[in-house]
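Researcher: Here's my situation. A collaborator sent me these components and asked whether they could plausibly form a single complex. I don't have experimental data yet, so a predicted model of the whole assembly would be a useful starting point for our discussion.
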Amino acid sequence: MSEEIILDIKNLQTVFRDEDSEVRAVDGVSFSLPKGKTLGVVGESGSGKSVTALSILRLIDHPGKVEGGEINFKGKDLTKISDKEMRSIRGNQISMIFQEPMTSLNPVYTIGQQIRETLKVHQGLGKQSGNEKSVELLKLVGIPSPEDRIKQYPHELSGGMRQRVMIAIALACNPELLIADEPTTALDVTIQAQILELINRLQDEMGMSVIMITHDMGVVAETCDYVAVMYGGKVVEYADVKTLFKDPKHPYTVGLLNSIPRHDIDVDELEPIRGSVPSPKDMPKGCRFASRCPFATDLCVEELPSLDEIEDGNEVRCWIYSDRWDGDPEVKEHGPKRTS
Amino acid sequence: MAQKELLKVKNLKQYFPIKGGFFGRTVNHVKAVDDVSFEIKEGETLSLVGESGCGKSTTGRAILRLDDPTEGTIEFNGEDLLALNKKEMRNRRKDIQVIFQDPYASLNPRQSVYQILAEAMEIQNVVPKQKRRERAIELLETVGLNGDQVDRYPHEFSGGQRQRIGIARALAVEPKLIICDEAVSALDVSVQAQVLNLLKKLQREFNLTFLFIAHDLGVVRHISDRIIVMYLGKVVEIADKKTLFENPQHPYTKALLSAIPTPDPEVKKERIVLEGDVPSPINPPSGCRFHTRCPFATEVCAEKVPELKNHGFMEEGHRAACHHVDEIASGELGPKY
C-alpha cells in the first residue's frame, strides 16, 4: 500500500491488575489506518475494542496500564511522550466520541459553555469568538437554530441531538483522527442513519481518518474501508471491508456473520457460534477461539497462532492457513463456510 | 390456517398522568398507547416494532396488567383480562408469561436457579413439591443448560445463559403466551442467535404463542409470522412478515427499513433519511402523528387521523394507516426532497 499511514499500532498490551488477578484486556493488538480512511474495530463484549481506543488516548485508569507495544501516530510513538504532550494531542489532533451522549456531557453546563471550553483550551478562543465558532459547529452537525441551542442544557436535547453536540465538540479543533466508540448504539435506527450520514459527510469534507468501534456488522459494512475483528483481546482478522464480508477467513468472523439475523433476506436457521466468550481472567493459552471453533485441533488448543498476512495486506490469526495445519484438509482448501 | 385467536386487544389506550402545579394536579397526559387493536392467533409469533417511545413495551405491560390500561379491552381465550380482580389475574398469569430484556436485573441474585424455578412453580402450583427439583432439572435441559447447574446462582452464568434461565422460568408454569420484551437485545450477536434458535425450537415443541417486542428488525424478520409497526402510540402498519419487508406501504415503515445498515458492503441502497426526532408523546402532532417527519405529508395529514385499513391493492391482512397509500403506490404523489 502506498497510502500514508496515520496510525500504526504494534503489539499493544493493556493489562488490568489487582492483588490476585490480572486481566489482559488488550493482548498484542496490531493494526494500521491509512490517512482519510475508516477502520472498523468489531468484536463482542469483552473483546478489548474499547480498551484499545482508550489506550490510544491514554485514558486508561488505574489499575489498568499500557504495558507494551507502540502507538505510532503520524510517526510519533504516543506511548513515549509526556502527559503534557499527550494533552495537546488529545481533543486537538485525536478526538473521541462515546456511546452514551448523556453521561459524556456535563449536565450543569450549557451546550455553548461545553463547546467553548474545548475551543478555549486548545485554540485560546475567548467568549465572543468561542460563541461564534460554537454556532458554526452546531450548524455543521445539523442542529437547527444553533443560536438558541447553545444556551440550553443537555437534558433539554434528545439523544440524537446530544450525540450531534458530542460530535461538534469532537470536531471543534479539526482533528486528524476521530475515534468513535459505538457512537450510534444508544440511538434509534432512524437517528442512527442520520448520525452515520453526518460522520461520513464530515469525514469527506474534512479529510479525517476515523476509527469506528462497533459490534454491528451492518454499521461496519456501510461506513468502513478496513476492518479489524477482535476476539479475546487480540485481532483475529484484518482485511478491507469487501474481502471481509465476501471471503472471511477466520472461523470467528465467519461465525459472527452467520449469526446475524438479516433484515434484508430470509434465513431459515441461524448458525450461532456454540458456547460463550471465555473469561478474561482465564484465557486459554492456545487460540482464544479454540473452545468454540468447529475446526479446532490439538494444535489450536496448545499453541497460539500468529497474525500473518495471507494476501494484499489482509491478515488472519488462524492455524488453518499455516503449513502446520493438521486438521480437516477440506477447510484449508475452501475455508470456513458462510451460510448466507 | 384457521387458527383460533388467543389474544384480542381492542382500542387499547394507556395514558400516564403528569402531575404538576401547586396541588399536584394532573396537568397533562403522556399518551403512550393510543387506540391500538390487534389479535394474536394460537401458535404464531406476532412482533411489535418501533423506536423508543412508540408504546411497544407499554402495550406488552398492559396485556400483563403490570400497568392498568386507561381504556380498551384485552381478551385472552375469550375472557376479558381487564375485568378480572387481582387474584384472578394472578391465576391467569400462569398462561401469560414474560421474558424481560435485562438478564442481569430480572433474576434475584440471592436465589439459586432451583429456587427461582421452584418459586414460579409454587406460585402457580403447577408441580407438586417433591417433583419440583426433577422438573427444574428438566427445564434447564430444555433450554440448553446442564441439569447439574441447578444449584448455582445467577452470577455464575453468562448473559446468554441467564437469559436461558429467564426462559426456563417462563416455561416452568407451562404458559400459552409468552411476551418477549426485547428478550435478546442485550446479548452479543453470536449468543443472540443461540437464544433465537432456542425460542423457535420451544415454540415448535410446546405450541407456544409469542408476542415479540423488539427494535431490531433483523431479529424480527427472523422470528415473526406477522409484524405490527408502531409510531408514537399508534399502529401505522400491520402485515405478515414477507409482505412487510418486501412490500411496505406506510412511509414510516419504508423509512425505518431503509435506515437499517445492511451487513453487506456490496449492497448499495437508496436510503430515506428522516429529518428530526420523534415528537413528544405528551403533545403528539395532530392528524397523522408521522406528518411532521413524513416526506409525503399534505394538508389532510395534519387534520385527520388516518384509519388503519386495507387498501384494495394490498395483500389480505395487510393494513396501513396513511391517507396517501394509493397515491404513493401509483406514483401520483412523490416525496418532498
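Model: Some features of this prediction you could bring to your collaborator: The CA atoms of residues 214 and 292 of chain A lie 22 Å apart. Chain A has a mean pLDDT of 90.
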